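Ticket #4471: structure export looks truncated?
Reporter: QA, pipeline team
Priority: medium

Steps to reproduce: submit the single chain below to the structure queue and open the exported record.
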Amino acid sequence: MLDPNENKAAYTKYFSEALGFETSIQRSEALKKSTRQAPWRFDLEINGKVKAFVLRIDARSSLYEYQVLKAMEEIPIPTPKVYGLDEEGQHLGEPCFFMELIKGESLLTYMKAGEGWADDLYISTANRLHAVQLGQLGEVAKLIKTETAEDVLDSAYEYLHSLDEPVAEAAYKKLKGNVPTLAQTCFSNGDLYPDNMLVKDKTLVAVIDFANASVSDPLYEFLLTFFVHPELRGRGIEENFCESKGIDSKVLPWYHALEYFDTWRWVSKYGEPFVGYDEDRLRSTMQKWVETGSLD
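Actual output as written to the record:
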């Protein structure tokens, strides 16, 4: 990636050509990095008005996320408009695109504050995403992968089996032998986390982050938020989501156990704890679940 401070002319040319207007960069700054290369915010003056954009530079996912977001522009769910796909990195040295920066507050903030309307909006937004049909997404639908909850289980076991972990073997046997009637797979942005849902005046203004958009088990993906934020449990959100889907909430304990099992896979693979869970804690948690059926 070209340094924006040292290559202002290249960036200005890129933005101007993509937008079809002369632009002037008023501000540029790197934003918080996640698992990908840090995005950049650019405030551009266009026809006398300043508008903010987010530049994505990531060779692994730029094309896919751009295509999904472009298709989502035709769906009645608010998502950022995208511009300037450069697959070859001719303008800035790496594949990239940029999108409008939509101002809003994280839905997660309001959920953590105990706002009931936020819980309801999380459920309704998830269901709006799940209602999107692949046929509505055009050509990119051919690239979207499908993964069931049982696929997650088998994939996690394939890795853990290679570690010769007796607890993992016992946990897999119990999970595999008690697979419930699974939820029907649905489309989503691939990270159904309320921090990726922006709100203003109790209204959804944007769903962001479609880099891992997929067709997956809607309940499994929905429940990951409650693994990361256990303080949100016990408010009936998970049960209400099940009811909205026509899913028997009695399947929740199986899904929760799968979360721990799959987390064990990723923590072991990358050698880093996740929300306070290291390998030892996950192993002991799964051992307890195998013996007692409890994850507490």
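Status: closed, not a bug. The export was complete when the record was re-opened. Leaving a note from the reviewer for reference: The chain has a mean pLDDT of 95.
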